[in-house]
Design a protein that fits this description.
With 264 residues, the chain is of the alpha/beta class. The chain is built from 10 helices and 8 strands. The chain is 48% helix and 15% strand.
Length: 264
C-alpha cells in the first residue's frame, strides 16, 4: 500500500531565501522517509504554487494527498486560504482523496531551537547581560494557538527566570515595540527578542528592525528547517493520513477484527 503524498504548504514570499526553508524541509524529509513522496508548495509569490503541485500529483496518478500547513502560530484552525485550496483541489480532482492536517503550531519542542538561535545571536552581539525577553511571532493565530503562544512565553520566562512578553507582527496583538516598552516600564534595560518565525520573511524583518529601533540588544534568527520542525510535520502528516484509511463496514463489525486489535 503506497503512503499518501505529503505536501507542505507555506505562505510564500518574494524573497527566495524564504522559499529555501521549505525546500530544505522537503529535502530533509525525503532523506528521513525515502519511501514517501514529499513536496513543497506555496500559497503566494514563490513557485511552485500549491495548485501546480496538486496538478503534478494528479498527472502522476497519485491517489491520496495530505496537505500540511507550515504555520507556527496556528494550532488547530488553518489560514482560510488553506480551506479554499482544499476545496478547489477536491473540486478539480474528485477521484483523488485529500486531507488537511493541523498546522505545525507553537509546540514546546521549538523552544529549544528558539534558545539555540538566541544564544547564537547574543554571542555574535557580544551581549553579556540580559534582563528581559520578548517572544515575537507573525500573528496571534487561532484561539488555541494564541493560548499556546502565551504558555510558551511563560515557560520560556520560567526557564530563564526572566520576564517575557509576547509580540506579533500583524497588529492582532502587541507589537515588538510595545512589548519592549512594557519591559522597560518594569525597569528592564537589556532586552532580547526570540523570533518564533519559520523563515526570515517580510514580517520577520519588520519585527527585527522595529526591535532594534526600540533598543533590543539582540534579535534571533528564525526557527528554520530544523529536525524538530521535520518531526512535527511528520507527526501532523501521520495523524491526518488516518482520515484516508478506508475500513469496510464488514471489517469494522467483525468480532475477529476487534479481538485482533485488542490482543495487539
Amino acid at each position: 500500500m503506497t503512503a499518501p503524498a505529503l505536501v507542505m504548504v507555506a505562505r510564500g514570499s518574494s524573497d527566495p531565501m524564504v522559499a529555501q526553508v521549505t525546500h530544505q524541509l522537503v529535502s530533509g524529509l525525503a532523506k528521513m522517509r525515502p519511501e514517501m513522496a514529499v513536496h513543497g508548495a506555496f500559497l503566494q509569490s514563490s513557485p511552485p504554487s500549491a495548485g501546480q503541485v496538486i496538478d503534478q500529483l494528479a498527472a502522476a496518478n497519485v491517489n491520496e494527498v495530505v496537505l500540511v500547513p507550515l504555520e507556527l502560530s496556528h494550532a488547530v484552525e488553518c489560514d482560510p486560504a488553506m480551506a479554499e485550496l482544499l476545496h478547489k483541489a477536491r473540486t478539480n480532482y474528485p477521484d483523488l482523496r485529500f486531507t488537511l492536517s493541523r498546522p505545525v503550531g507553537p509546540e514546546i519542542s521549538l523552544l529549544t531551537i528558539l534558545d539555540q538561535r538566541l544564544r547564537t545571536s547574543l554571542s555574535q552581539a557580544r551581549c553579556l547581560e540580559l534582563d528581559g525577553l520578548v517572544l515575537s511571532a507573525s500573528c496571534t493565530g487561532d484561539v488555541r494557538g494564541s493560548a499556546l503562544l502565551a504558555r510558551r512565553a511563560r515557560q520560556w520566562s520560567t526557564h530563564h527566570r526572566l520576564p517575557c512578553l509576547t509580540a506579533v507582527a500583524d497588529d492582532s496583538g502587541p507589537s515588538v515595540a510595545q512589548a519592549i516598552m512594557g519591559l522597560r516600564a518594569q525597569g528592564r534595560r537589556h532586552i532580547a527578542v526570540g523570533s518564533f518565525f519559520l523563515s526570515a520573511d517580510e514580517a520577520y524583518h519588520a519585527q527585527s528592525d522595529l526591535a532594534y529601533r526600540y533598543g533590543a540588544v539582540s534579535v534571533s534568527d528564525p526557527i528554520g528547517a530544523c529536525r524538530e520542525v521535520l518531526d512535527l510535520v511528520l507527526a501532523r502528516y501521520a495523524f491526518a493520513a488516518m482520515d484516508l484509511l478506508d475500513f469496510g463496514q464488514e471489517e469494522l463489525d467483525s468480532p475477529a477484527r476487534h479481538l485482533s486489535v485488542v490482543s495487539a
